[in-house]
Amino acid sequence: MRCRRHGNHLSRVLSTLALAPTLMAAGAVGAAGFSLPESSTAGIGLANALVADPNERGAFSYNPAAMGFHQTSSLALGTILIGPSFSVRTDSGNHDSQGAEWLAGPMIQAALRLNDDWRVGLGISAPFGLETRWTDGTFPAVSGTAHVPGLPPSLNPNVPKGHPTASKLEILDIAPSLAYRVSDDLSVAAGLDVYWAKHAQLDSTANRMSGDGTGLGFNLGVLYRLGDWSFGAAYRSSADISIDGPYQPLSPTLVAIKRLPPAQDAEVDIELPWRFQLGARYQVTEQLAVELDWARTGWSTFDTLEIRGNNTDELIFRDQNRWSDSNAYRIGATYQIRPATRLRFGYAYDQTGQDDAHFSPRVPDSDRQLLSAGLAQSLGNGYSLELGYMYVVADDRRIKSATPYTGGPINGTSAVDGDYQMHAHLIGIEINKVFE
């Protein structure tokens, strides 16, 4: 891969801060990195421990093989509401992210029983994304303006340093799937993940970029029942999304002296991580069931980020993220308190894949804990109402980098030093209809 050098450190700062994390609206809150695994209200209530559940219809979006254990068609329409809070204390004081107070995403799942053996499903969810906004002044080393080295004073205006401001990413997953009931106790499934990055936005004080794009992946699932036990596994492949959109520099001076590229359409390829989940579920009594899950996310695929101009094929920016694969540990319990009422509880611990050497203020990630509860209430005539709530709290993360900031890329340097905090509230609401 080619990498062109800018004329001096200042131009590298501008391009790096303005463009580096085009794929990420920093701070996804449902899981580590920028992942949002919550794809059903049942999943929210059970802290995403659903891969081995043959009974919950909310498991279809986690493991499509679960459709094989249901003898009726169904439709679930719901939404997830996310209220995130990100803050950092730097040398300039305490700063809160000024992103949207509440964000919403779809949770839709249809399952059609074709015959005794075959089921076809279609799910729509928002598995990646979110939003942060940092005001100029949050990170002092790149706040405000500076002179351009090499220009005489009469021609040397103050130019922005490229302080990162707004980042936003919205990715939808449209997932058709097919399940086959091999036997009374075994079901397998396969499907596609059609990803649509419907909006990717990145603003800084120096320039901005926005765009959209699509990508394609696949998923596989298996679910086996053995008496009171059931065991499940689900895999979703990595997928490459090519995002295209306008790149706009905000400093005519730096464009004129060719230290920033001119306005043009640009492209960035984003490698979404693969995800693998294993689970075991035990029906303790007729009313109570407990599931334990382990999940691994392939963040190592999110390694290199390149942004290239479409008009000239100029490499605008290239960076190494070098994230690591991470684990999540989940436990969920369901309790049938009445024939028409089911309670759900969950807990999960998710590890981050981002080390201090590559820490980004646009993705202030940290290990986090998830606490959840939910309710499913039958309404009669095949209808049911489901509610879920999850509280996510990340470990406080102190960044004190031994790498001094010298005017180049800021990730992992002293420019991002600070104490970072995050917590979030997630609410899910869903209406289900079973077609007898």
Walk me through this protein's architecture.
This protein is mainly β and 436 residues long. It has one domain: Porin (Beta Barrel), CATH 2.40.160.60. 5% of the residues lie in helices and 55% in strands. It is built from 3 helices and 22 strands. A hairpin with a 5-residue loop joins β15 and β16 (315-320). Residues 1-27 have low confidence and may be disordered.
Keywords:
mainly beta; 14-stranded antiparallel beta barrel; 5% helix; 436 residues; 55% strand; 3 helices
Which helices and strands appear, and what pairs or packs with what?
Elements: H1 9-19, H2 41-45, E1 73-90, E2 93-96, E3 103-113, E4 118-133, E5 145-146, E6 159-160, E7 164-183, E8 186-204, E9 207-226, E10 229-236, E11 239-249, H3 252-256, E12 264-272, E13 275-283, E14 288-297, E15 304-309, E16 315-320, E17 326-338, E18 341-350, E19 368-380, E20 383-394, E21 397-399, E22 418-435
Antiparallel strand pairs: 1-2, 1-3, 1-22, 3-4, 4-7, 5-6, 7-8, 8-9, 9-10, 9-11, 10-13, 11-12, 12-15, 13-14, 14-17, 15-16, 17-18, 18-19, 19-20, 20-22, 21-22
The count of domains is 1
Class per helix and strand makeup: mainly beta
Largest sheet: 14 strands, antiparallel, barrel
Q: What is the total tally of β strands? A: 22
CATH architecture: Beta Barrel
| CATH class annotation | Mainly Beta
* Pattern of helices and strands: HHEEEEEEEEEEEHEEEEEEEEEEE
Q: How would the global form be characterised?
A: elongated
